[in-house]
Specification:
Elements lengths: L8 E6 L6 H15 L3 E7 L3 E6 L4 H15 L12 E5 L3
Antiparallel strand pairs: 1-3, 1-4, 2-3
Helix pairs in contact: 1-2
């Protein structure tokens, strides 16, 4: 079964309070380059959240892809690691 652009998972990465929107935008651009076509959409939201729509059938695969991308960029310290720092939901746009 092929995935469509409306399938996948939306993940919100909550930044630490001292991280500004420009830093999040830099991370977003690098993740677009790193993940390529797997990253369907992305945006920096006003409340220090980086929202990523990942084209994967599995929530776990989406989380792993984003964690791998953030780790490869060396910017794990920009985001909160508490339970609410990374939230994933099924996308049905």
């Amino acid at each position: 079964m092929a995935m469509t652009a409306t399938d996948g998972h939306v993940l919100d990465l909550r930044a630490r309070p001292d991280v500004d929107a420009d830093e999040l935008e830099d991370v977003r651009r690098h993740l677009v380059d790193f993940l390529g076509e797997w990253l369907v959409a992305s945006a920096v939201l006003d409340d220090q959240v980086l929202r990523l729509h990942v084209a994967t059938a599995s929530r776990i695969t989406a989380l792993a892809a984003i964690r791998a991308g953030v780790g490869a960029l060396g910017c794990e310290d920009l985001f909160l690691v508490e339970a609410h720092g990374l939230h994933a939901s099924r996308s049905r746009l």
